[in-house]
């Protein structure tokens, strides 16, 4: 990288710390942020546990403010250190970072009416801070590529599952009826989804022999067609993995790449490849 | 297509709108139909929700008639605009289109006896209108081909699953008996299917240690043999995917096909391939 | 086959009807047997449904005797028509055929004490008649070969699953204890299997936060490791499918087979292959 | 092996019996150990069954001491017969072997206070003796290699599952609330994991229509994304399996390896390969 030899402005140095991770300070910044995100999620969780909140309400409140200020600071630094702030502000991460700080400020302003459902929901939105973690996964991994490539097929599959659930849910509503828990069609469809996906809560279960027969068909169907998305992704990944076997060198004569890993001659022009 | 230069009868133009989707009017027709189908399914669902039906009964009734008239109109247009109407009428889509319109007319005729179970079931049949959506998926996709190719293997698998469930269901009936919910063999087989497919409603659950031991065996069996349909479809799709990578041109010299997608020379005789 | 030109003894003709399926009489025999097996299984099921048995007890009894006599007749014919009767009698199918006939005779002999549990169990054993169906699947299909090839790996996997369930079941017994339904270790292990295999009956469910945390770990583990048997079978089947791509011809020079489907030269000696 | 021709010290002979399995005595040692481990696990299980423990307490107690002494003896022999005892003591198996013997001694010393929870937990730790079985599986099998190779991808997948469960758990807590069993966020996240992994205990189930809608989304998501770990492992195993088909010899002329298993000529330079 050898960036240390360049004379860099403080903005540039800040950018390096915040947006990159290959300097000690940059790594430290990332670790602090990571800890803050996880701590923040744990705070939201604990706040919802009644007994815990009753005991440690103040500690949770203080912790929340510390994290909010930290995130606000991070947000401002990110805007300052970047060349095109608006591009960041309206990017996915920009919006996530903004939403990570704002709920607690709003709930502070409307503190008198804190009991309102809307404000409570707003506070719970803090859980979306976890999306800040997405930065650390990176968008370029092969898994996502394989999924993207099989997007269309998976959509067709989901569409098929939905049609099956709507039809079979309605049929079960006809057969079992409200007296066995299938009170209306949306609920019956919900049950069909619960059954087809092999979740099977058991809050609603067929009681009539005919209903149990159709339920059996749904279950075996669900058990078999799970093979379809699996097959799609497996075949896509096998394909991606096979493409792996080509090396990265390019032919010295015609510049084509994607040669087989142990190829001696270019598959395109027949020139000898450098080892 | 350049069909606009031809002098086309109104029947031909109608056919183009209804059966094709590459003109603006044809696309509009498709979108209207799509919206009508989805609206229709939602209506059937809402009608079954007691509270909602009590409040908005009239609105639902009117909506239902609008959609029925629309579908009737579509059905008549499809018959008029096609050359061989009977081929359409007795095709899969012809029957679906017919069944999409008829229930409400019948229930209108027998309006006095609307409370009858048969009529109620008839009205629910409207849910099969969703099959009209199948037109938009198309029958030629690779997913279906892979499934068709592995049909025989999947049938053997399902047959095996059924035999296992019948035997283990009967064994569980012997062990657990009516006092633990396994009141008869069909119900025990139903339970075995619920367990083997890993659905596990929990409405019936083994109580005796021996029953729980056999249940464990069924569960682990079910957990392991799901690998079989998955393996079948995965291997079939990998095969289909591999065949993808070859293009459709044939060598001008030796007439061999199945060349790699970016090959320049014939893999068989070395002649240059046409681009 | 041209067997009709041979002068065959009645034993030979009988053997042809019973053990083969390529003559009209042989096919008829198979169809009758198939119907009898399925009817027999349905009889066993219906007998266990109390209401049905109360109404149609005599009809079921007569039906049972008809099928038993049919199977007895089949058993005797099979012994008579084969050259080495003892080999058949002690084969898998021989034992199944014998067990398909014997229960009802025994229960007839001890008719006075029909209420005995042992006799009732014996009668239920008739369900194993379904294994007679195995004859119609055939043992030579590729599915079984792929499973046999991955037998060792699947055994290691099941062994691993069992160890995980024993350890985690014991840990859950420690944490949750008898008051939350985990009354003893075998039951806790049963619960761990129910959870790991994603069946989830819900008859026992963790109540303490720590128990729910460990349950979450078990569930995510179970959700992930199902990939292992699936991966084993998929890879085995892909391998089997790939071997398919070789053709059946053998080299005219060196007699090696397993050539690629579109190969022109022998991969072993370089001779030209006949088309 | 021809080790019998060497003059071996008793330490060497002991080492051969304990650490190897290719002599009759070594095999006998392994079988005895295997039986002892399984017997020990069964003892721990039976001890937890109240009725059984009440009846056979003394027999279980004696059995436990016999096994403990056996394992102690094994532990001492292992230390004596190895050249670097400390390497063994602090290895994975060394620690497991130590922990297999110690609990019962401690509980004997503190016998007066046997009712203590800590001691009871300690006694239950004996279940980890099952890890002694790991010796018999061996660490070098291909299954583990395939899993290790796909470790990073599976970690990303689990991370993604966790994020989804945290967000959807919180959303369900907002929608359903404490009155429908979603008493706090950790519990809601537990429910989301139960649902996403298709376990579905049913101890908590959504009651509101909106909650059931989101539950449906979670279920279909869980049903679809199980394809991801499966795809990862399948593709990894297919790769490993493919690499199988090449043998380990290298060409005597150009030193290339990775030849097909039955190849006679080098695929690279055409030289004849040594058998």
UniProtKB/TrEMBL annotation, chains A, B, C, D:
Domain Ion transport, chain residue ranges per copy: 27-239
Principal cellular location given in the protein's record: membrane
The cellular component terms of Gene Ontology attached to this UniProt record, alphabetical and capped at eight, are:
voltage-gated potassium channel complex
The UniProt entry's GO biological process terms, in alphabetical order, are: action potential
Q: Would you tell me the protein name for this molecule?
A: Ion transporter
PANTHER family given in the database record? POTASSIUM VOLTAGE-GATED CHANNEL PROTEIN SHAB, VOLTAGE-GATED POTASSIUM CHANNEL
| Lineage of source species | Bacteria, Pseudomonadati, Bacteroidota, Flavobacteriia, Flavobacteriales
Locate the transmembrane regions by residue number.
28-46, 58-77, 89-111, 154-176, 188-206, 213-232
Q: Which organism is it from?
A: Polaribacter reichenbachii
